[in-house]
Amino acid sequence: xxxxxxxxxxxxxxxxxxxxxxxxxxxxxxxxxxxxxxxxxxxxxxxxxxxxxxxxxxxxxxxxxxxxxxxxxxxxxxxxxxxxxxxxxxxxxxxxxxxxxxxxxxxxxxxxxxxxxxxxxxxxxxxxxxxxxxxxxxxxxxxxxxxxxxxxxxxxxxxxxxxxxxxxxxxxxxxxxxxxxxxxxxxxxxxxxxxxxxxxxxxxxxxxxxxxxxxxxxxxxxxxxxxxxxxxxxxxxxxxxxxxxxxxxxxxxxxxxxxxxxxxxxxxxxxxxxxxxxxxxxxxxxxxxxxxxxxxxxxxxxxxxxxxxxxxxxxxxxxxxxxxxxxxxxxxxxxxxxxxxxxxxxxxxxxxxxxxxxxxxxxxxxxxxxxxxxxxxxxxxx
Length: 382
Prior knowledge:
Layout: H1 3-9, H2 52-77, H3 91-100, E1 106-108, H4 114-119, H5 124-132, H6 141-144, H7 155-170, E2 176-181, H8 188-199, E3 204-210, E4 213-214, E5 217-218, H9 230-234, E6 238-242, H10 246-261, E7 267-272, H11 291-298, H12 302-312, H13 318-340, H14 360-374
Parallel strand pairs: 1-2, 2-3, 3-7, 6-7
Antiparallel strand pairs: 4-5
């Protein structure tokens, strides 16, 4: 039998074929998509004392974060922002992990952690300055223990590891958390951060939001095993959590942070979730994924899931939801007005501080740019 005939008998999987979204992976889940509470002997204790008020707070966090995110997307479509990276669908992973943090813990985000920023007290309007091009981040990282957004994929995991190693040397009773995506897991920086954190027993939690797509590349192109299992090869534990379950995300992150603070070293948390929108506003997901896939994940919506639980448990009434809707719209208006009121940046600022003592080439480029600006007779270039 020839090699060709043997290969012809084997079923082939095309490069664009996706695993069925109905497949149920092994993960930690405390709330089902239907809003039913699931018991978990290992992680229940981390949310055992949560009050109805705190549950309503988690719901409020997710609703307001989604409203802000939707407003930012609309502002980009209207030309008010240059770009926006939506978190639609990932609210539970971010709010759950964000509310697990203590004030003295330190966060290293990517460019999509708007929900975590909300939990750290960063004003939503400050997130938009960078995307409007008026600053490099409008908040003091040390004021909220929330680092500036990182655009370079995966580099923040190294920053977090180095910071955590410093925390350990200082003897501080705090932890560090680094956020990254499934696509970033293929970066060498992430592997290096795993190695260093394990060898030096750094108090860091690696929180991977596996939203199934690294732009147009599915998770199958990033790994042949579940992402959380990668931690085993580096000598520390990994766990997969239902990233659309805010309670489970809260519980698992609390557990991982306690390990870090207790001197037990790093943990990898894989939040299994879904990016319902585009990678960024410059992306068109209809080019590479099926509508049926999104529809299957919409049935697992993190906000609807918690609302069902609140209603079934009589922890929230219609008055609460109506009041929150009013607050949500007010937030949208505030964000919209704040962005439109932002001043235009100094166009010549990009030439400053490139060199401490100046440089002839930069001076030449500045002069060329000035001449170009002056060429606009209608004044718009000035």
